[in-house]
Design brief:
The protein has helices at 23-31, 58-65, 79-87, 104-107, 129-135, 171-191, 226-235, 301-307; strands spanning 4-5, 8-9, 11-17, 35-41, 46-47, 54-55, 70-71, 92-96, 112-117, 140-147, 157-164, 242-246, 249-259, 269-272, 277-280, 285-293, 299-300. By secondary structure, the chain is an alpha+beta fold. It has 2 domains: 4-205, Rossmann fold, CATH 3.40.50.12230; 214-307, Methionyl-tRNA Fmet Formyltransferase, Chain A, domain 2 (Roll). Strand 1 and strand 2 (8-9) form a beta hairpin. The chain is elongated and about 70 Å long.
Length: 317
């Protein structure tokens, strides 16, 4: 149904988004009485494990719940796709974790296009800003609303929010909080759209992130410090998770603390009891709090140690 605000037609928004991070901004716009979301553009359904079942993007599940039209083009640079996007008749594009570059010809269709990006741009452009902020042990991160252009996350900045990273934050907690912040910010920006004053990013300060791969989660006790390993555990909490091998079996770590120590025995068990497992690193050591053995569920370290016997001096791969 067509929405109206103060006697005028509501702004028509076409939402481009795929991942879970985009859900809260999408839902906030759908629920708003001031805007009309005319459709969702997401990437196609992905193949599940072993390719047996197609998995819908999180945004698609949400959009269908609210009765939105969903468009999932394989390619954007086709006349058919351009015509379909044009047919939505959107005044504005909102882009959040979509996963594809939107061609210039398509960006000319609306009056404006705004991207929600979870970092303080120009720091951490690219696909993995939340992971990198945690991986590098940053004290602060944030959310940026920027213009969408043909270069990755390089558009002028409309609005920014700076958010403190709690020492207990992991990818899941920080991701969820930044998504909520992004939802509030896009509503604020669109409610005050005539007052937005874009400013260019400082290209000399630009840094970039890469797509996280499974092998990035492998812990190297020999060459990584305890602080680096703890940061890795926090950054890869959801995927790919931080992991190591012991006797040829995979063990994932979901929570650990740094332990100060003068004992220099990297990749060795330096202390073990009924409630504690401490492993040496290149500098200091980590005390594992939550672990998941291969083919088992994640468990507190006390439960793990009740069933797995490790010895001081045992080498960890």
């Amino acid at each position: 149904m067509e929405k109206k605000t103060e006697g005028r037609k509501a702004m028509r928004i076409l939402f481009f988004g795929t991942s879970d991070f985009a859900k809260k901004p999408l839902e906030a716009l759908i629920k708003s009485n001031q805007f009309e979301v005319v459709g969702l553009v997401s990437t196609p359904d992905a193949k599940g494990k072993r390719g047996k079942k197609l998995i819908q993007p999180p945004t698609k599940e949400l959009a269908l719940k609210y009765g939105l039209e969903v468009f999932q083009p394989e390619k954007l640079k086709t006349e058919e796709t351009l015509n379909k996007i044009k047919a939505f008749g959107a005044d504005l594009f909102v882009v959040v974790s979509y996963g594809k570059f939107i061609p210039n010809e398509m960006l000319k269709l609306p009056k404006m296009s705004i991207n929600i990006h979870p970092s303080i741009l120009p720091k951490y452009r690219g696909p993995s800003p939340i992971n990198y902020a945690l991986l590098n042990g940053d004290e602060y991160t944030g959310v940026s609303l920027i213009d969408v252009i043909d270069r990755m996350d390089a558009g002028d900045v409309y609005m920014q929010w700076i958010e403190r990273i709690d020492p207990n934050d992991n990818y899941e907690t920080l991701h969820n909080r930044l998504s909520e912040i992004g939802a509030r910010m896009i509503l604020c920006a669109l409610e005050n759209i005539d007052s937005l004053k874009p400013r260019p990013q400082d290209e000399s300060l630009a840094t970039y992130t890469k797509i996280i791969k499974k092998e990035d989660g492998k812990i190297d006790f020999e060459n990584e410090t305890a602080r680096e390993i703890v940061n890795k555990i926090r950054a890869f909490y959801v995927w790919p998770t931080a992991y190591f091998y012991l006797d040829g079996k995979l063990f994932k770590i979901f929570e650990a603390e740094e332990v100060k120590t003068d004992i220099k025995k990297p990749a060795q068990v330096i202390k073990v009891s009924k409630k504690e497992l401490i492993i040496g690193c290149r500098e200091n050591a980590i005390s594992i709090k939550t672990i998941q053995p291969q083919s088992k569920k994640a468990m507190p370290i006390e439960a793990f140690l009740a069933g797995y016997k490790l010895n001081v001096g045992q080498v960890i791969q």
